[in-house]
């Protein structure tokens, strides 16, 4: 339902494209939003930050029409609106690019971009594919994205799927655009291009809500920033007049003394040998050693082959080459690697990590079913509950309810479930692929401490991260991958992020 109101008659609404007042949203047993006020002006980037579970995505889902049972009022472009479904939000010119990408993997890039507005052919019921490709190409050219128009989206990496989602949203006549963690899976070049696009959208009067856990991005792109904590609005600041430590205190409600733990690990003998790992078209001739108690960083720009290398190492993709764990050759497959003592926390927690539709307990215990089985190989509910409770407590999963569906947890807590599942298996080698992607600063600090503790226990750790500050503060060595080749093996001591970025992007 949309009712008219005069924006100019209300001083609080002057210049405001969107104003949400006293928004309340309850879930069973939980108040997710508690009288939240939030405003977006024309042509501004208003950042919305907070820890996982603070209510950011819930507030944006109210705006997107996904939760029609909210309390409070919403004013959008001189009208009082009651948002009850996503189609209504689209008609109003509100588009949300969610952290969990809404792309269709079996359709091509062009088909996803033009979804819902496919041009008709000359004959009834036909599709003008040439025009569809041309219009999709124009959108990508405007954004500066280079994507294969005819490739199925499920063949693309997470970063490129994110680009497809952005192109799909911007193609529509949007007035207010919400980015939910848009740079979490993008490389530095793609982030720079996205910021250029956002500035162009600002100049056209489009309002932008920018949700991110990368606080270092805010001075470059945000005009104002609002902080949510535990479902309540803590405050709003002009970014030009605010320092990042103040925002961190507002988010956490306390000082964050140290993001990174002190280095206490001592690398020992070689635990993993990789020789001549090759997958034609993706990477070739990759060789390295990993020592027990060592954190080995892997750096590279998006498309460099980082993820493809560790997927092949874990046996998720076929590749030639040899791998040895503690001197014994490994026949690579996820099942064999798991049995041998290699665990992998994948980049895409939604697709490759947790199993949607199952509970937290089921996801935590999925790798332990043989250990938790009783007589006659029957699973015992008591053992399942007890084991899930142990890992829920150890990983500080919030809310601490193993019976809750995994889909109801925030992104950071879903990541904790994946890590907890592997911790229970006690592998010798952990592979972390973008472990802090899309999680808040408090959870990041917890993940850093966990990685360091694993190394101190003598486990070998391979760490892939697009945030080079993580590599230089956690890793003992950093492997640099470019265009599918391992080009440098750098000691991390004394390096900074700029040096790693230069190594990743420089040309021979």
Question: What can you see in these coordinates?
Answer:
There is one protein chain. This protein has helices at residues 56-63, 86-92, 109-113, 129-143, 158-171, 188-203, 218-221, 244-252, 306-314, 334-340, 349-353, 360-365, 369-372, 381-394, 411-423, 441-456, 468-474, 497-505; strands spanning 2-4, 16-27, 30-41, 45-49, 71-76, 79-81, 94-97, 176-180, 207-211, 224-229, 232-238, 270-279, 283-291, 295-299, 320-325, 328-329, 342-345, 429-433, 460-464, 477-482, 485-491. With 508 residues, the chain is α/β, with parallel strands linked by helices. It folds into 4 domains: 2-93 and 174-252, P-loop containing nucleotide triphosphate hydrolases (Rossmann fold, 3-Layer(aba) Sandwich); 108-172, no CATH class; 267-341 and 428-508, P-loop containing nucleotide triphosphate hydrolases (Rossmann fold), CATH 3.40.50; 356-426, no CATH class. The strands form 4 sheets. A 6-stranded mixed β-sheet has the order 7-8-9-4-10-11, with helices on both faces. It has a 6-stranded mixed β-sheet with strand order 17-18-19-14-20-21, with helices on both faces. Strands 1-6-5-2-3 form a 5-stranded antiparallel β-sheet, with helices on one face. The termini are far apart.
């Amino acid at each position: 339902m949309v009712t008219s109101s005069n924006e100019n008659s209300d001083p609080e609404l002057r210049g405001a494209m969107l104003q949400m007042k006293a928004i309340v949203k309850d879930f069973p047993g939980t108040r997710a939003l508690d009288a939240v006020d939030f405003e977006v002006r024309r042509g501004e980037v208003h950042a919305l930050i907070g820890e996982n579970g603070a209510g950011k995505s819930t507030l944006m889902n109210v705006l997107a029409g996904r939760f029609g049972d909210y309390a409070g009022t919403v004013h959008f472009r001189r009208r009082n609106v009651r948002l009850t479904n996503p189609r209504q939000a689209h008609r109003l010119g509100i588009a949300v690019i969610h952290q969990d990408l809404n792309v269709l993997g079996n359709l091509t890039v062009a088909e996803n971009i033009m979804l819902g507005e496919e041009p008709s052919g000359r004959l009834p019921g036909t599709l003008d594919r040439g025009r569809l490709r041309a219009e999709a190409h124009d959108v990508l050219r405007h954004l500066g994205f280079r994507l294969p128009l005819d490739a199925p989206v499920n063949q693309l990496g997470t970063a490129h799927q994110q680009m497809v989602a952005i192109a799909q949203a911007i193609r529509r006549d949007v007035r207010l655009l919400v980015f939910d963690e848009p740079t979490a899976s993008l490389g530095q070049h793609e982030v720079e291009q996205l910021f250029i696009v956002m500035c162009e959208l600002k100049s056209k009067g489009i309002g932008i809500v920018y949700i991110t856990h990368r606080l270092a991005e805010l001075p470059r792109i945000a005009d104002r920033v609002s902080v949510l904590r535990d479902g309540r609005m803590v405050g709003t600041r002009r970014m030009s007049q605010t320092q990042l430590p103040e925002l961190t205190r507002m988010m956490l409600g306390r000082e964050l003394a140290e993001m990174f733990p002190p280095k206490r690990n001592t690398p020992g003998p070689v635990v993993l040998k990789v020789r001549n790992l090759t997958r034609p078209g993706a990477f070739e001739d990759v060789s390295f050693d990993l020592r027990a108690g060592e954190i080995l960083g892997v750096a590279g720009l998006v498309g460099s082959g980082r993820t493809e290398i560790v997927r092949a190492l874990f046996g998720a993709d076929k590749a030639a080459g040899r791998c040895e764990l503690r001197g014994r050759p490994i026949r690579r497959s996820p099942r064999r690697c798991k049995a041998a003592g290699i665990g992998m926390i994948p980049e895409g927690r939604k697709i490759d990590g947790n199993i949607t539709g199952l509970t937290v307990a089921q996801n935590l215990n999925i790798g332990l079913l043989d250990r938790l089985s009783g007589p006659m190989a029957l699973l015992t509910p008591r053992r399942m509950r007890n084991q899930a409770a142990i890992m829920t407590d150890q990983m500080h999963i919030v809310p601490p309810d193993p019976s809750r569906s995994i889909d109801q947890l925030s992104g950071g807590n879903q990541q904790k479930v994946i890590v907890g599942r592997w911790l229970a298996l006690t592998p010798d080698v952990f592979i972390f692929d973008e472990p802090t992607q899309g999680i808040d600063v408090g959870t990041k600090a917890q993940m850093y401490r966990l990685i360091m503790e694993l190394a101190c226990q003598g486990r070998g750790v391979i760490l892939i991260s697009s945030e080079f500050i993580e590599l230089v503060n956690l890793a003992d060595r950093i492997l640099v991958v470019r265009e599918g080749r391992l080009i440098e093996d750098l000691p991390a001591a004394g390096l900074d992020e700029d040096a790693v970025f230069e190594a990743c992007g420089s040309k021979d």
